[in-house]
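Deliverable D2.4 — example input (structure tokens):
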């Protein structure tokens, strides 16, 4: 994949600040959530170091024609507006059925109170919306790519 042209200045800022990086490590643009409020709240959790994981349905990756992330991949996290906020590096990815996501993963994902109960309730609603848009049905056995990541770069102009 190549960095979208509107994000190249941010990517180049990252390269200058950190030194040479293998361009092949660029993976994707990461926008968490499916609404402006949710996306911006989740991005803020990432920037504060609270949210260090995310889960996406396997079929969603397939429908978009992209591979699941792999350790070492770099993604640009944006606000809903498309403004770049940070770069994350994938640390680990596990393929897990929705109903087998662990309390430990829910805590690392860092949303709400960090509990598995909160994770299940809110992620089921999210995946139900995602399934409905794609003409699918939510299934508790649906496979998820459970990705853990770390922030490796934040723009100095974050508040802009």
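Example output (designed residues):
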């Amino acid at each position: 994949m190549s960095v979208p042209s509107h994000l190249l200045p941010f990517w180049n800022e990252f390269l200058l600040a950190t030194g040479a990086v293998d361009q092949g490590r660029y993976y994707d643009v990461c926008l968490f959530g499916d609404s402006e409020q949710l996306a911006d709240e989740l991005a803020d959790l990432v920037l504060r170091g609270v949210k260090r994981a995310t889960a996406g349905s396997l079929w969603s990756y397939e429908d978009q024609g992209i591979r699941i992330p792999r350790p070492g991949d770099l993604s640009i996290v944006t606000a809903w507006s498309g403004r770049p906020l940070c770069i994350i590096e994938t640390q680990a990815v596990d393929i897990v059925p929705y109903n087998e996501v662990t309390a430990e993963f829910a805590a690392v994902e860092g949303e709400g109170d960090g509990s598995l109960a909160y994770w299940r309730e809110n992620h089921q609603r999210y995946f139900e919306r995602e399934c409905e848009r794609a003409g699918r049905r939510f299934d508790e056995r649906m496979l998820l790519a459970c990705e853990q990541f770390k922030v490796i770069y934040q723009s100095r102009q974050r508040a802009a």
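The longest strand covers residues 84-97.
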